[in-house]
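Are you able to produce any protein sequence you like plus the matching C-alpha cells because I've never seen that pairing?
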Amino acid sequence: MEYIMDTWRELRRMNVRQMITQGLQLGLIVTSALMIWKSLMLVTGSESPVVVVLSGSMEPGFYRGDILFLNMGNKPIRTGEVVVFNLDGRDIPIVHRVIKVHERRNGTHIDILTKGDNNYGDDRALYNQGQEWLHQHHIMGRAVGFLPKVGMVTILMNDYPALKYALIGVLGILVLTNKEG
C-alpha cells in the first residue's frame, strides 16, 4: 500500500511540474509573437506593419481578405502609391490609393487625397467633417507586398466571434496537453 501511495505522490508532482512547464511554454509563445510584432514595427517604421483588406474598394488591385505588408520609409508619398491611413477618432484603418499630393513649405508639410480603385469618387466623403486632405500623421504605411486571401481567417473571426474564442481555446488546450517525452 505504501508503494502505491508513493507512486501516486510522484505522479502528482510530475503533473504539477508538467503543467508549470507547459504554462511557461505558452508564455514564451505569446512573448515571442509580441517581440516579432514589435521588431517588425521598428524595421518598417509603421505602427501596424501588417493589415488585412476588409472591403472591396481596392478591387481589382487588392481583394477582401488580402494581407498587406506596410513600410513607411523615408521617401515622400507620391501619387499612385497604395497607403493605409487612419482617420482621427476611428479605429479601423483604410487602404486606398493616393491620387493627389500637394507639398508646402519645402516638402515639410504635405496634403494627400486618396481614392479606392473601385470607388467612383475621392475619399473626401470618408474623411472627418471639414477635412479636405490627409496629412502625414494619418498615414500608417505604404503597401510594399501582399498575400492574397490569407487574411480571410481574420475576417471570419471578426464576423463570427465564437469562432475566434473556439480557436483560441483549442490552441490553448493543445499547448497545455502537449506531452514532452
Observations:
- The chain has a mean pLDDT of 85.
- The two ends are 29 Å apart (CA to CA).
